[in-house]
Amino acid sequence: MIGSSRESLAACRDGLDARRHDDGFAGLSGELFAVASVLDAESPLRNVLADSGQPHSVREALVRQVFGGRVSDLALDLIVLVTGRRWASDLDLVLAIEQLADQAAFAVADAQGSLDATEEELFLFGRAVDASSELQMALTDPAQSSATKAAIVAQLLEGRATQATREVLEYAVGHLHGRRIDSVIDELCGLAAQQRERVVAEVRVAAPLDQEQQRRLAEALTTLKGRTVRLNVAVDPSMLGGVHVRIGDEVIDGSVTSRMEQASRAILG
After folding, report:
1. How far apart are CA 159 and CA 238, in angstroms?
2. For residue 59, which of 67, 50, 68 has the smallest C-alpha distance?
3. Longest CA–CA separation in the chain, Å
4. Where are the domains of the chain?
5. 204 vs 122, 181, 234, CA distance in Å?
6. Are the C-beta atoms of residues 22 and 81 closer than 8 Å to each other?
7. pLDDT in the model for residue 248
8. What b/e readout covers 179-195, taking b as 16+ CB neighbours within 10 angstroms?
């Protein structure tokens, strides 16, 4: 991707990160892959949704008309987000949704503690493809359907790989978009590695933080976690003061409201 597409993808990835704790996130990758597959097959629909000359309201209405009731509200919101951005080509829009699906799958693997295994399995699968001309031909043969290629991967990985590995590879082999299969697998390995570094802190504060305060908080959390931490900041006046931070299942609560509640419990026994 180049220019506007790269910037749009970064914004969409941030948007997905912000929804990681939403209900239904565990099934999001499958829904996004399904939407991407539809858009890949339906060029008129894809062209309209990628056309930044169309008002965003028109594209959003079309997304809701086509996919509303067929995917979750979470998936629908993210597709609206994607189609509201500017893309250099209609293919870039499809690639963006596919990458978001990959990111969602890797985020779930990370939360389940299986991201390391997923990353290693992707690497080993790539080496297996490199070593077997027969496998390469089977997975890149244009005469074979996407379903047939996915079935080959499913058979090879049955009982040997994490859900994330199976899901992203079964989709990828049927949607190469003219790319070499080894480069697609390398890209998946890169996305999995990036996920390892993507630590997102959900931050609630009583009043907005300026850039310097956000920088200091991010640095402190990065030191604490040993990994680069990004902030998603929400203002909650009911907190009265202080900061409430959640990173995955870990909560760091320095809010005035929390301290008052702790003091009250101590007094009341």
Report:
1. 49
2. 50
3. 74
4. 3-196, 198-268
5. 36, 43, 5
6. no
7. 67
8. eebeebbebbbebbeeb
pLDDT at 255 over 90: no
Q: What is the rounded CA–CA span in Å between residue 258 and residue 240?
A: 10
Q: Is 133 helix (H, G, I), strand (E, B) or coil?
A: helix
User: Please, what is the Cα angle at 214 between 210 and 218, to 5 degrees?
Assistant: 175
Q: What is the pLDDT of residues 95-145, one digit of tens each?
A: 999 999 999 999 999 999 999 999 999 999 999 999 999 999 999 999 999
Confidence bin at 260 (pLDDT 50/70/90): very low
Helix (H) or strand (E) holding 233: strand 229-235
Q: Is 248 helix (H, G, I), strand (E, B) or coil?
A: coil
Phi, psi of 204 (to 5 degrees): -115, 130
Closest CA to 258 of 217, 220, 206: 206
Residue-level pLDDT at 223? 86
